[in-house]
Design brief:
The protein is mainly alpha-helical and about 400 residues long. It is about 80% helix and about 0% strand. It has 2 domains: about 180 residues, Up-down Bundle (Growth Hormone, Chain: A); about 190 residues, Growth Hormone, Chain: A, CATH 1.20.1250.20. The longest helix is centred in the last third of the chain and has 37 residues. It is a multi-pass membrane protein.
């Protein structure tokens, strides 16, 4: 229960502070080009610190990571609140935000993985990602707090509220008890342990599928407003489409365990990623708003289903004592995918518009579906190598 509460509060802070930091950069005279640097400043800690953080969690427990992560978020809010008149200071605050988010997310995911019995990963990660999605829905609502202008939200007030929520997060972290440590996890060194994880049949393919799925969500969030601008769709309609996507993603996760039992994990993951690919590509068609709402709902349900499946699959493939490292590998690959794939596909927008990006993202998701199918093939090959017991 504390981990779920922790996940909600963490995502509220993150999804309120990230857009607010962008507003703050523009407010102090920064150019729109600098916003890409802000995004990179958030991702850099994950790329540099993910593996060491996951390895340390496997050795000393999740609670220390949650406490340190909450402390980093408090520092980020303080820096942004009292030193927000400089772009350089705001970038520093963004880096502390990225570090706090990294440590907290890896700690949460490792806690879920290490305290869940085999066969229950899909259900538990479904509830966990539901809590995260709830926080991601609430966070942007802080931008509507009173005190701002038509163009800019009340930046200082939002930073102060996020600082207070970070203190609450620190308090929740104190109530979380680390899972039992594995003796194997204590002895393992980071690089050999990471190399061993990557040799597990299916793990690299699961990481690839997860990074593609997450990048597709980022591309949807970034280019749906551009599509609306090109077609003259009102901003309130675009906002409604985003809310519908988020709500149906949350809804799907409540029934994840049942759907896995009914259809099987591999089949459910492959078909939901493939469905996401088809639906996202359909956004390129000149469809009426009502049909776009239906597509947003289907995309939200499908993408919301396959996201936690990739997470639970990685947790189950990893051995006890290395799940913190496995979650950190997942987070690092996701951040890499979120950085590289949107940059590559974004170049299409100049030539084809937003519609071309949606089609290219759909094609990319078909690659993710193939990768997910290959995970099952790797598992079957591994099972075939095991001699039958007499």
């Amino acid at each position: 229960m504390f981990v779920l509460a922790h996940a909600v509060v963490l995502q509220v802070i993150t999804f309120a502070m990230r857009p607010t930091l962008s507003y703050a950069v523009l407010d102090v005279g920064g150019s729109q080009a600098l916003l890409g640097v802000v995004v990179a400043a958030f991702a850099v800690p994950a790329l540099l610190l993910a593996l060491p953080a996951g390895h340390v969690i496997d050795r000393i427990g999740e609670r220390a990571a949650l406490l340190t992560g909450a402390a980093a978020l408090i520092v980020a809010a303080l820096i942004a609140s009292f030193g927000g008149s400089s772009v350089g200071v705001l970038l520093l605050a963004t880096m502390f935000l990225g570090m706090g988010h990294l440590l907290s997310v890896i700690g949460e995911q490792a806690m879920v993985a290490n305290t869940t019995s085999r066969g229950q990963f899909d259900s538990k990660f479904g509830y966990f990602t539901f809590a995260s999605a709830l926080g991601q829905t609430i966070g942007p609502l802080l931008l509507a707090l009173p005190g701002g202008t038509v163009e800019t939200p009340p930046v200082g007030l939002i930073f102060m509220v996020c600082g207070a929520l970070s203190v609450v997060l620190l308090g929740i972290s104190f109530f979380v008890r680390s899972s039992e440590r594995s003796a194997t996890g204590k002895r393992a060194r980071m690089l050999p342990a990471a190399a061993a994880l990557l040799r597990i049949p299916g793990l690299v393919r699961a990481l690839l599928a997860g990074s593609i799925v997450l990048a597709s969500v980022d591309l949807f969030l970034a280019y749906l407003p551009a599509l609306g601008h090109e077609r003259g769709i009102a901003a309130v309609v675009i906002s409604a489409l985003l809310v519908v996507r988020s709500m149906f993603s949350m809804f799907s996760r409540l029934f994840l365990g049942r759907m896995v039992k009914l259809l099987g994990r591999r089949r459910l993951m492959v078909w939901t990623i493939a469905a996401s690919a088809v639906v996202l590509s359909a956004f390129a068609l000149p469809l009426p708003v009502a049909m776009l709402m239906v597509l947003a709902a289907v995309f939200g349900f499908a993408i919301g289903t396959c996201q936690p499946i990739t997470m639970s699959w990685i947790a189950e493939l990893a051995t006890p004592g290395t799940r913190g490292l496995a979650m950190s590998l997942r987070l690092a690959s996701n951040r890499l995918g979120q950085t590289v794939l949107p940059s590559l596909l974004g170049t299409l927008s100049a030539a084809t518009g937003a519609a071309g990006v949606f089609v290219a993202t759909g094609i990319m998701l078909f690659g993710g579906a193939w990768s997910g199918a290959a995970v099952g093939e790797a598992e079957r090959e591994e099972e075939d190598d095991v001699p039958a017991s007499k």
